[in-house]
Amino acid sequence: MTRIAIIGGGNIGEALASGLVADRTGAAADISPQDVTVVDHHESRLNHLHDTYGVATTDDATEAVTEADIVVIAVKPYAVSTVLEEISATLDSNDSETVVVSVAAGVTLASMENALAAGVPVVRVMPNTPMLVGKGMSAVAGGRFARREQVEAVRDLLGAVGTAVIVAEKDMDAVTAVSGSGPAYIFLVSEALVEAGVHLGLTRDVATRLANATVEGAAAMLVEGGSSAAELRGNVTSPGGTTAAAVRALEENGLRAAFYRATEACARRSAELGRPAVEED
Ligand SMILES: NC(=O)c1ccc[n+]([C@@H]2O[C@H](COP(=O)([O-])OP(=O)(O)OC[C@H]3O[C@@H](n4cnc5c(N)ncnc54)[C@H](OP(=O)(O)O)[C@@H]3O)[C@@H](O)[C@H]2O)c1
Protein backbone atom coordinates (compact mmCIF):
# COMPACT_ATOMS: atom_id res chain seq x y z
CA MET A 1 0.00 0.00 0.00
CA THR A 2 1.29 3.47 -0.92
CA ARG A 3 -0.02 6.28 1.26
CA ILE A 4 -0.21 9.61 -0.53
CA ALA A 5 -0.83 13.05 0.97
CA ILE A 6 -1.72 15.90 -1.39
CA ILE A 7 -1.33 19.33 0.18
CA GLY A 8 -3.47 21.81 -1.74
CA GLY A 9 -6.83 20.69 -3.07
CA GLY A 10 -7.07 23.18 -5.95
CA ASN A 11 -6.89 22.52 -9.71
CA ILE A 12 -3.77 20.37 -9.72
CA GLY A 13 -4.48 18.69 -6.37
CA GLU A 14 -7.93 17.66 -7.58
CA ALA A 15 -6.60 16.46 -10.95
CA LEU A 16 -4.04 14.29 -9.17
CA ALA A 17 -6.51 12.92 -6.63
CA SER A 18 -9.07 12.04 -9.31
CA GLY A 19 -6.44 10.42 -11.56
CA LEU A 20 -4.91 8.35 -8.75
CA VAL A 21 -8.29 7.10 -7.63
CA ALA A 22 -9.46 6.28 -11.17
CA ASP A 23 -6.24 4.54 -12.31
CA ARG A 24 -6.91 0.82 -12.58
CA THR A 25 -4.01 -0.27 -14.80
CA GLY A 26 -0.95 1.87 -14.04
CA ALA A 27 1.35 2.43 -11.07
CA ALA A 28 -1.57 3.78 -9.03
CA ALA A 29 -3.74 0.71 -9.63
CA ASP A 30 -3.32 -0.57 -6.07
CA ILE A 31 -4.06 2.81 -4.49
CA SER A 32 -7.54 3.02 -3.02
CA PRO A 33 -9.28 6.33 -2.25
CA GLN A 34 -8.62 5.84 1.48
CA ASP A 35 -4.86 5.80 0.77
CA VAL A 36 -5.05 9.36 -0.59
CA THR A 37 -5.45 12.26 1.85
CA VAL A 38 -6.01 15.78 0.55
CA VAL A 39 -5.24 18.80 2.72
CA ASP A 40 -6.76 22.23 2.12
CA HIS A 41 -7.80 25.36 3.99
CA HIS A 42 -11.27 25.37 2.52
CA GLU A 43 -13.88 23.06 3.99
CA SER A 44 -16.00 23.33 0.83
CA ARG A 45 -13.09 22.01 -1.26
CA LEU A 46 -12.49 19.15 1.16
CA ASN A 47 -16.18 18.18 1.12
CA HIS A 48 -16.22 18.29 -2.68
CA LEU A 49 -13.09 16.12 -2.97
CA HIS A 50 -14.33 13.59 -0.43
CA ASP A 51 -17.82 13.36 -1.92
CA THR A 52 -16.58 13.14 -5.53
CA TYR A 53 -13.57 10.83 -5.23
CA GLY A 54 -13.93 9.19 -1.82
CA VAL A 55 -10.49 10.40 -0.72
CA ALA A 56 -9.70 11.18 2.90
CA THR A 57 -9.52 14.90 3.71
CA THR A 58 -8.21 17.10 6.49
CA ASP A 59 -7.15 20.68 7.14
CA ASP A 60 -4.20 19.42 9.18
CA ALA A 61 -1.10 18.91 7.04
CA THR A 62 0.91 17.25 9.80
CA GLU A 63 -1.80 14.62 10.28
CA ALA A 64 -1.86 13.91 6.53
CA VAL A 65 1.92 13.49 6.16
CA THR A 66 2.30 11.22 9.20
CA GLU A 67 3.62 7.92 7.82
CA ALA A 68 2.84 8.99 4.23
CA ASP A 69 5.04 7.43 1.54
CA ILE A 70 4.63 10.34 -0.86
CA VAL A 71 3.67 13.95 -0.09
CA VAL A 72 2.66 16.05 -3.08
CA ILE A 73 2.79 19.80 -2.55
CA ALA A 74 0.21 21.38 -4.86
CA VAL A 75 -0.06 24.92 -3.52
CA LYS A 76 0.94 28.15 -5.27
CA PRO A 77 4.72 28.72 -5.34
CA TYR A 78 4.65 31.45 -2.67
CA ALA A 79 2.97 29.05 -0.22
CA VAL A 80 5.46 26.18 -0.56
CA SER A 81 7.85 27.39 2.16
CA THR A 82 5.00 27.67 4.68
CA VAL A 83 3.92 24.10 3.92
CA LEU A 84 7.47 22.76 4.23
CA GLU A 85 7.89 24.51 7.56
CA GLU A 86 4.62 22.99 8.73
CA ILE A 87 5.46 19.38 7.78
CA SER A 88 9.24 19.20 8.19
CA ALA A 89 9.36 17.86 11.78
CA THR A 90 6.69 15.24 11.08
CA LEU A 91 8.51 14.01 7.97
CA ASP A 92 11.67 13.72 10.03
CA SER A 93 9.94 11.57 12.63
CA ASN A 94 8.17 9.24 10.16
CA ASP A 95 9.28 5.60 10.49
CA SER A 96 9.85 5.11 6.77
CA GLU A 97 11.27 7.53 4.23
CA THR A 98 8.74 9.99 2.78
CA VAL A 99 9.31 11.37 -0.73
CA VAL A 100 8.32 15.04 -1.07
CA VAL A 101 7.05 16.00 -4.53
CA SER A 102 6.40 19.59 -5.57
CA VAL A 103 4.47 20.69 -8.64
CA ALA A 104 5.03 24.39 -7.90
CA ALA A 105 6.40 26.31 -10.86
CA GLY A 106 9.83 27.79 -10.31
CA VAL A 107 10.49 26.44 -6.81
CA THR A 108 13.92 24.80 -6.96
CA LEU A 109 14.99 21.48 -5.47
CA ALA A 110 17.74 23.17 -3.46
CA SER A 111 15.33 25.63 -1.83
CA MET A 112 13.07 22.76 -0.76
CA GLU A 113 15.95 20.58 0.41
CA ASN A 114 17.24 23.48 2.49
CA ALA A 115 13.85 23.87 4.17
CA LEU A 116 13.69 20.18 5.17
CA ALA A 117 15.84 17.95 7.37
CA ALA A 118 19.01 16.72 5.66
CA GLY A 119 18.45 13.66 3.50
CA VAL A 120 14.72 14.05 2.76
CA PRO A 121 14.21 12.98 -0.87
CA VAL A 122 12.62 15.74 -2.95
CA VAL A 123 11.25 15.50 -6.50
CA ARG A 124 10.21 18.49 -8.60
CA VAL A 125 7.51 18.17 -11.23
CA MET A 126 6.49 20.56 -14.01
CA PRO A 127 2.99 19.50 -15.07
CA ASN A 128 0.69 21.18 -17.57
CA THR A 129 -3.03 21.95 -17.57
CA PRO A 130 -4.22 18.99 -19.70
CA MET A 131 -3.57 17.04 -16.48
CA LEU A 132 -7.02 18.34 -15.56
CA VAL A 133 -8.49 16.02 -18.23
CA GLY A 134 -6.07 13.14 -17.64
CA LYS A 135 -3.81 14.13 -20.57
CA GLY A 136 -1.07 15.99 -18.73
CA MET A 137 2.56 16.09 -19.78
CA SER A 138 4.84 16.24 -16.76
CA ALA A 139 8.60 16.45 -16.45
CA VAL A 140 10.14 15.05 -13.28
CA ALA A 141 13.52 15.93 -11.74
CA GLY A 142 14.98 14.30 -8.64
CA GLY A 143 16.96 16.17 -6.01
CA ARG A 144 20.27 15.09 -4.54
CA PHE A 145 18.72 12.81 -1.91
CA ALA A 146 16.14 11.20 -4.23
CA ARG A 147 17.12 7.74 -5.40
CA ARG A 148 16.52 6.74 -9.01
CA GLU A 149 13.74 4.31 -8.10
CA GLN A 150 11.96 7.02 -6.09
CA VAL A 151 12.05 9.41 -9.06
CA GLU A 152 10.81 6.60 -11.34
CA ALA A 153 7.99 5.82 -8.90
CA VAL A 154 6.84 9.46 -9.04
CA ARG A 155 7.04 9.41 -12.85
CA ASP A 156 4.97 6.22 -12.96
CA LEU A 157 2.35 7.59 -10.56
CA LEU A 158 1.94 10.63 -12.81
CA GLY A 159 0.91 8.16 -15.50
CA ALA A 160 -2.48 8.26 -13.78
CA VAL A 161 -2.98 11.79 -15.13
CA GLY A 162 -1.13 11.63 -18.44
CA THR A 163 2.50 11.06 -19.40
CA ALA A 164 5.72 11.87 -17.58
CA VAL A 165 9.42 11.95 -18.43
CA ILE A 166 12.48 12.27 -16.22
CA VAL A 167 14.73 15.27 -16.90
CA ALA A 168 17.58 17.08 -15.16
CA GLU A 169 16.49 20.11 -13.13
CA LYS A 170 18.59 22.40 -15.36
CA ASP A 171 16.14 21.58 -18.18
CA MET A 172 13.04 22.72 -16.26
CA ASP A 173 12.99 26.20 -17.83
CA ALA A 174 13.05 24.64 -21.30
CA VAL A 175 10.36 22.15 -20.22
CA THR A 176 8.24 25.08 -19.04
CA ALA A 177 8.70 26.73 -22.45
CA VAL A 178 7.64 23.63 -24.40
CA SER A 179 5.06 21.64 -22.41
CA GLY A 180 4.35 23.80 -19.34
CA SER A 181 3.13 26.81 -21.30
CA GLY A 182 2.62 24.84 -24.52
CA PRO A 183 -1.16 24.33 -24.17
CA ALA A 184 -1.60 28.12 -24.29
CA TYR A 185 0.23 28.26 -27.65
CA ILE A 186 -2.13 25.64 -29.08
CA PHE A 187 -5.17 27.49 -27.66
CA LEU A 188 -3.86 30.65 -29.33
CA VAL A 189 -3.44 28.86 -32.66
CA SER A 190 -6.98 27.48 -32.38
CA GLU A 191 -8.32 30.93 -31.48
CA ALA A 192 -6.55 32.45 -34.49
CA LEU A 193 -7.94 29.74 -36.76
CA VAL A 194 -11.48 30.52 -35.57
CA GLU A 195 -11.05 34.24 -36.26
CA ALA A 196 -9.60 33.46 -39.68
CA GLY A 197 -12.58 31.21 -40.45
CA VAL A 198 -14.99 33.96 -39.42
CA HIS A 199 -13.07 36.35 -41.65
CA LEU A 200 -13.65 33.94 -44.55
CA GLY A 201 -17.41 34.03 -43.90
CA LEU A 202 -18.06 31.04 -41.62
CA THR A 203 -20.28 31.48 -38.59
CA ARG A 204 -18.38 31.60 -35.30
CA ASP A 205 -20.04 28.39 -34.18
CA VAL A 206 -19.05 26.46 -37.29
CA ALA A 207 -15.53 27.94 -37.32
CA THR A 208 -15.06 26.99 -33.65
CA ARG A 209 -16.22 23.42 -34.22
CA LEU A 210 -13.96 23.06 -37.27
CA ALA A 211 -10.92 24.47 -35.47
CA ASN A 212 -11.37 22.52 -32.22
CA ALA A 213 -11.99 19.19 -33.97
CA THR A 214 -9.00 19.82 -36.24
CA VAL A 215 -6.70 20.37 -33.24
CA GLU A 216 -8.08 17.22 -31.60
CA GLY A 217 -7.70 15.12 -34.76
CA ALA A 218 -4.20 16.36 -35.53
CA ALA A 219 -3.14 15.74 -31.92
CA ALA A 220 -4.50 12.18 -32.06
CA MET A 221 -2.54 11.51 -35.27
CA LEU A 222 0.63 12.85 -33.66
CA VAL A 223 0.27 10.79 -30.51
CA GLU A 224 -1.12 7.57 -31.94
CA GLY A 225 0.23 7.45 -35.49
CA GLY A 226 3.93 6.94 -34.81
CA SER A 227 4.96 9.57 -37.39
CA SER A 228 6.72 12.86 -36.68
CA ALA A 229 5.00 16.22 -37.08
CA ALA A 230 7.18 16.95 -40.11
CA GLU A 231 6.17 13.65 -41.78
CA LEU A 232 2.48 14.19 -41.10
CA ARG A 233 2.61 17.72 -42.49
CA GLY A 234 4.52 16.51 -45.55
CA ASN A 235 1.85 13.85 -46.16
CA VAL A 236 -0.92 16.45 -46.38
CA THR A 237 1.06 18.99 -48.42
CA SER A 238 0.51 18.11 -52.11
CA PRO A 239 2.83 19.74 -54.64
CA GLY A 240 1.36 23.05 -55.77
CA GLY A 241 -1.75 22.44 -53.64
CA THR A 242 -3.85 24.40 -51.18
CA THR A 243 -1.98 23.32 -48.01
CA ALA A 244 1.38 24.16 -49.65
CA ALA A 245 0.09 27.69 -50.33
CA ALA A 246 -1.03 28.08 -46.71
CA VAL A 247 2.20 26.67 -45.27
CA ARG A 248 4.26 29.01 -47.44
CA ALA A 249 2.26 31.98 -46.10
CA LEU A 250 2.78 30.83 -42.51
CA GLU A 251 6.53 30.39 -43.03
CA GLU A 252 6.83 33.77 -44.80
CA ASN A 253 5.09 35.35 -41.84
CA GLY A 254 7.66 33.93 -39.45
CA LEU A 255 5.72 31.18 -37.66
CA ARG A 256 8.83 29.11 -36.95
CA ALA A 257 10.85 32.13 -35.80
CA ALA A 258 7.96 33.21 -33.57
CA PHE A 259 8.17 29.87 -31.73
CA TYR A 260 11.93 30.22 -31.25
CA ARG A 261 11.39 33.67 -29.75
CA ALA A 262 8.35 32.68 -27.70
CA THR A 263 10.05 29.69 -26.08
CA GLU A 264 13.19 31.73 -25.37
CA ALA A 265 11.07 34.41 -23.69
CA CYS A 266 9.20 31.79 -21.68
CA ALA A 267 12.37 30.00 -20.53
CA ARG A 268 13.94 33.33 -19.56
CA ARG A 269 10.87 34.30 -17.52
CA SER A 270 10.81 30.87 -15.88
CA ALA A 271 14.45 31.29 -14.84
CA GLU A 272 13.68 34.75 -13.41
CA LEU A 273 10.77 33.38 -11.37
CA GLY A 274 12.97 30.56 -10.07
CA ARG A 275 15.43 32.95 -8.45
CA PRO A 276 15.24 33.12 -4.65
CA ALA A 277 12.09 35.15 -3.94
CA VAL A 278 9.35 33.33 -5.83
CA GLU A 279 6.27 35.51 -5.68
CA GLU A 280 4.49 34.63 -8.90
CA ASP A 281 3.06 31.58 -10.63
N1 LIG B 1 -2.95 25.20 -12.64
C1 LIG B 1 -2.06 24.86 -13.56
O1 LIG B 1 -2.37 24.78 -14.72
C2 LIG B 1 -0.64 24.54 -13.20
C3 LIG B 1 0.24 24.11 -14.20
C4 LIG B 1 1.54 23.81 -13.81
C5 LIG B 1 1.93 23.93 -12.48
N2 LIG B 1 1.04 24.34 -11.56
C6 LIG B 1 1.46 24.47 -10.18
O2 LIG B 1 0.58 23.73 -9.34
C7 LIG B 1 0.48 24.40 -8.09
C8 LIG B 1 -0.96 24.44 -7.68
O3 LIG B 1 -1.69 25.20 -8.63
P1 LIG B 1 -3.28 25.22 -8.60
O4 LIG B 1 -3.72 25.92 -9.84
O5 LIG B 1 -3.80 23.85 -8.33
O6 LIG B 1 -3.52 26.16 -7.31
P2 LIG B 1 -4.90 26.44 -6.52
O7 LIG B 1 -6.06 26.08 -7.39
O8 LIG B 1 -4.78 27.79 -5.93
O9 LIG B 1 -4.88 25.35 -5.34
C9 LIG B 1 -4.07 25.43 -4.21
C10 LIG B 1 -4.95 25.13 -2.99
O10 LIG B 1 -4.10 24.92 -1.87
C11 LIG B 1 -4.61 25.68 -0.75
N3 LIG B 1 -3.51 25.97 0.18
C12 LIG B 1 -2.59 26.95 0.13
N4 LIG B 1 -1.73 26.86 1.16
C13 LIG B 1 -2.13 25.78 1.89
C14 LIG B 1 -1.65 25.19 3.08
N5 LIG B 1 -0.58 25.67 3.74
N6 LIG B 1 -2.30 24.10 3.55
C15 LIG B 1 -3.37 23.61 2.90
N7 LIG B 1 -3.88 24.14 1.76
C16 LIG B 1 -3.26 25.22 1.26
C17 LIG B 1 -5.15 26.90 -1.43
O11 LIG B 1 -5.98 27.61 -0.56
P3 LIG B 1 -5.94 29.25 -0.63
O12 LIG B 1 -6.62 29.57 -1.91
O13 LIG B 1 -6.69 29.68 0.58
O14 LIG B 1 -4.51 29.66 -0.62
C18 LIG B 1 -5.89 26.30 -2.61
O15 LIG B 1 -7.15 25.80 -2.27
C19 LIG B 1 1.12 25.77 -8.25
O16 LIG B 1 2.33 25.83 -7.52
C20 LIG B 1 1.40 25.90 -9.72
O17 LIG B 1 2.65 26.54 -9.94
C21 LIG B 1 -0.24 24.65 -11.88
Automatic annotation (TrEMBL):
Keyword NADP attributed: yes
Locations listed in the record: Cytoplasm
Signal sequence interval, chain numbering: none
First-listed, main subcellular location of the protein, grouped into a coarse class: cytoplasm
Biological processes, Gene Ontology terms: L-proline biosynthetic process
Cellular component GO terms, alphabetical: cytoplasm
Pathway(s) where this gene product acts: Amino-acid biosynthesis; L-proline biosynthesis; L-proline from L-glutamate 5-semialdehyde: step 1/1
Keywords, ordered alphabetically: Amino-acid biosynthesis, Cytoplasm, NADP, Oxidoreductase, Proline biosynthesis
Reaction catalysis annotation: L-proline + NADP(+) = (S)-1-pyrroline-5-carboxylate + NADPH + 2 H(+); L-proline + NAD(+) = (S)-1-pyrroline-5-carboxylate + NADH + 2 H(+)
Sequence ranges assigned to domain Pyrroline-5-carboxylate reductase catalytic N-terminal in this UniProt record: 3-106
Recorded GO MF terms: pyrroline-5-carboxylate reductase activity
Known EC number: 1.5.1.2
Keyword Amino-acid biosynthesis: yes
Domain (Pyrroline-5-carboxylate reductase dimerisation) ranges: 169-273
InterPro entries for the chain: 6-PGluconate_DH-like_C_sf, NAD(P)-bd_dom_sf, P5C_Rdtase_cat_N, P5CR-like_CS, P5CR_dimer, Pyrroline-COOH_reductase
Binding site for NADP(+): 74-77
Bilayer-spanning residue ranges: none
PANTHER family for this protein: PYRROLINE-5-CARBOXYLATE REDUCTASE, PYRROLINE-5-CARBOXYLATE REDUCTASE 3
Similarity remark: Belongs to the pyrroline-5-carboxylate reductase family.
Job description of the protein: Catalyzes the reduction of 1-pyrroline-5-carboxylate (PCA) to L-proline.
Protein name: Pyrroline-5-carboxylate reductase
Source organism (scientific name): Corynebacterium provencense
